Amino acid sequence: MHSDSATSTFARHAVLSLSALIVIFPFLWIVAAGFKNQIDLLLGKFLFVPTWRNFEAIFNSTSDFARNFLNSIIVASTSMVLVLIVATLASYSLYRMRWPSWVLHSLLAWSVVFHMVPPITLAGAWFTMFRSLGLDNTLSGIILAHTTLNLPMALWMMGVFIRDVPNELVDAASMDGARTPQILRHVVLPIVRPGLAATGILSFIFSWNEFPVVLTLAQRQTATVPIGIGKYAQENTVAFTEMAAASTLSMLPAFLLLLIAQRFIVRGLTSGAVK
């Protein structure tokens, strides 16, 4: 009996370890490629002498990668904050303000439909609109576009968390004279904090990785990291190792966010799975 249990545990750990290796291997390959010479990479050498040359190249005076990185930080952070604010207020209104049920269902259905529309189909209309408003080739225009793209996802996620806030707590605060802003700040937000963390992280990552809309709206001064990485693929040559080095650095913000907010993300993504 004890032997069967040990065998089952070993098999489970082996499957989990193999699954983790399959997921992690592409990232390890990219990181390793960033420390290789182009020749070593193309020859497929497993053993190599690490070099910092690729990382130095992407930060030299002729490269825009540092500017691309700063632009991505600004765009992803600002759009994440806007998405959280709008989604939280909209969810609270939909689930706590006693709207007719058709309003709630219609808005959620429309958000699903909008989320299924390929972003590239919206880029042309946004480019024309932002140019008429003087927002073309600005970080503000890209921030507004990313906020719009990520808002449906955030509305659904925050709606689930706010819907699950006990009515008794909100009613008790209301009976004590608390107004809506006070209820939101002192009752609702502390309870939905895991949802805010999970939604914020996903919004940040989606904005950080978004490519087609930025490709349409941005120029050299406002390009973000995905555009910067794409520049290493030219018509006649592809700088694979420099592209790998830039990709390695582009993983760092999302990786740090996941480490910092891991506890909240797990609680947020699994909330509602167990009652």
Automatic annotation (TrEMBL):
**Any idea which UniProt keywords this protein has?**
Cell membrane, Membrane, Transmembrane, Transmembrane helix, Transport
Tell me which domain of life the UniProt entry assigns to the organism this sequence originates from. Bacteria
Name the residues that span the membrane: 12-35, 69-95, 107-127, 139-162, 183-206, 243-261
ABC transmembrane type-1 domain ranges (all copies): 69-261
Where does the signal sequence lie?
Answer: none
Q: Could you say which protein family the record assigns here? A: Belongs to the binding-protein-dependent transport system permease family.
Write the protein's name. Carbohydrate ABC transporter permease
| Source organism of the structure | Hoeflea ulvae
